[in-house]
Design goal:
globular; Alpha-D-Glucose-1,6-Bisphosphate, Chain A, domain 3; alpha/beta; seven-stranded mixed sheet; 4 domains
């Protein structure tokens, strides 16, 4: 019986419920298909702390070795640690994680040598086709010479690599609370932060893929509440929250308030431009704050606006030789880290910036947080195209307003802008609004939501 991969293989990765949607025999087929499509002679595999991850990773390794590839297992790791291994060893890689998804989920993030992403248009479709074929007709015969499977520790090398990309030599003593969400940050933070003048207050560092304290998804505000309260209670200088596979990092200031990922993008962009002699291209997606391109230009750089999604960011990074890229979702990409995303490197930049001056974090990021923003607001709709058309019609004939379709619909006025994008997987429209002040942002937000949700509203 052919496996149903329609809900399992996504645009950028493999992700689904274990064992309902996939299991170890299917993971073994994915390993064999990955080697065949990439023509790899050797690969590297890592996994997160989910209960199903070690077995799935081992099965994938068996499938890869059966096709003649030598396999290096690096065991427990964050996703950006897997990218480090892929880059440093110059090998294709597979990371077993479902990132911020609930415990019953698992998945695979795949890359070619040098951490180059594998997505729907860069090999994942071919891998899916082979797995479907083999699940129906049986796996191919093993290679004449099967590959070897060995283990390797990459945590120290990963930490040394990151610390070599940020000058942390002049950090003043800081108190930092880190919420690992029982995810891989609990594994990587102690080694990366070792030797720095930090009073580290760990929260939920115990690796537990059942997530007993809260979901490891800091994009949801409810999962930041514990960290915000702890930062204030400890009188800490800042807080850091990582998602399950620790490739994203969210920042809390000394008041317990969240720092916009756009502000962090602007801060890191300014530092990376300074590190590169005050010149270079920086990528940002179209939902980041308008302060991001402003700060890039002010610091001598060239901003490039792109669609939402890591595949678009990484493609632009490679094509333009960009030094840095940032997204509103707290993914941060670095040229000197194989164009891959690493929240840990962004965290080190924040520590270095804060620790290199005497003021609080709230004062430091004020210069980068210039506008009022709504955050992402989701609306369930029966017909995405119909509601997008209604919004387009409402704004299309207004003086001083421009529309573009780079990713969904972006509407820009004199003192405000908004983007409305359809979800690819759910019947949702996602709205982001930014304006010069809160009153203007609220007025625009409410008008657009009324159109999306088919209510009556007062035009601002």
């Amino acid at each position: 019986m052919v496996a149903d991969l329609s809900q399992l293989v996504k645009a950028y990765d493999v992700r689904g419920v274990v064992p309902d949607q996939w299991d170890e025999p299917l993971a073994e087929l994915f390993g064999a298909a990955f080697v065949q499509v990439t023509d790899a002679e050797a690969i590297v595999i890592g996994h997160d702390m989910r209960p199903s991850s070690p077995g799935l990773a081992a099965a994938f390794a068996r499938g890869a070795a059966s096709r003649g590839a030598d396999v290096t297992l690096i065991g427990l790791c964050s996703t950006d640690q897997l990218y480090y291994a892929s880059g440093a060893l110059n090998l294709p890689g597979a990371m077993f994680t479902a990132s911020h998804n609930p415990a019953r989920y698992n998945g695979i993030k795949l890359c070619r040598a040098g951490a180059a992403p594998v997505g729907q248009d860069t090999g994942l479709t071919e891998i899916r086709t082979l797995v479907e074929k083999w699940s129906e007709h049986g796996a191919p015969a093993p290679a004449a010479t099967e590959g070897t499977v060995t283990e390797r520790d990459t945590l120290t090398g990963y930490a040394d690599c990151l610390r070599g990309l940020v000058d942390v030599s002049r950090i003043r003593p800081l108190k930092v609370v880190v919420d690992a969400g029982n995810g891989m940050g609990g594994h990587t933070v102690p080694t990366v932060f070792r030797g720095l003048p930090l009073d580290l207050v760990p929260m939920y560092f115990e690796l537990d893929g059942t997530f007993p304290n809260h979901e490891a998804n800091p994009l949801d505000p409810k999962n930041l509440v514990d960290l915000q309260a702890r930062v204030v209670a400890e009188g800490a200088d800042l807080g850091l929250a990582f998602d399950g596979d620790a490739d994203r990092c969210f920042v809390i200031d000394e008041r317990g308030e969240g720092v916009s990922p756009s502000a962090i993008t602007a801060l890191v962009a300014a530092r990376e431009l300074a590190r590169n002699g005050g010149t270079g291209t920086v990528i940002h997606n179209l939902i980041t704050s308008r302060s991001v391109p402003e700060v890039i230009r002010e610091n001598g750089g060239t901003p490039v606006r792109t669609r939402v999604g890591h595949s678009f960011i990484k493609a632009e990074m490679a094509e333009r030789g960009a030094i840095f890229g940032g997204e509103h979702s707290a993914h941060y990409y670095f040229r000197d880290f194989w164009n891959a995303d690493t929240g840990m490197l962004a965290a080190l930049h924040v520590l270095a910036a804060l620790g290199g001056q005497e003021g609080p974090l709230s004062g430091l990021v004020d210069r980068y947080d210039r506008y009022a923003e709504s955050g992402e607001i989701n609306s369930t709709v029966a017909d995405q195209a119909d509601r997008l058309a209604a919004v387009r019609a409402a704004y299309g004939d207004r003086d001083g307003v421009t529309l573009d379709d780079l990713d969904g619909l972006t509407v820009t006025g004199t003192d405000w802008w908004f983007n409305l994008r359809p979800s690819n997987t759910e019947p949702l429209l996602r709205l982001n609004v930014e304006a010069r002040d809160t009153a203007m942002m609220t007025a625009v937000r409410d008008e657009v939501l009324a159109l999306v949700r088919e209510r009556t509203a007062t035009r601002p």
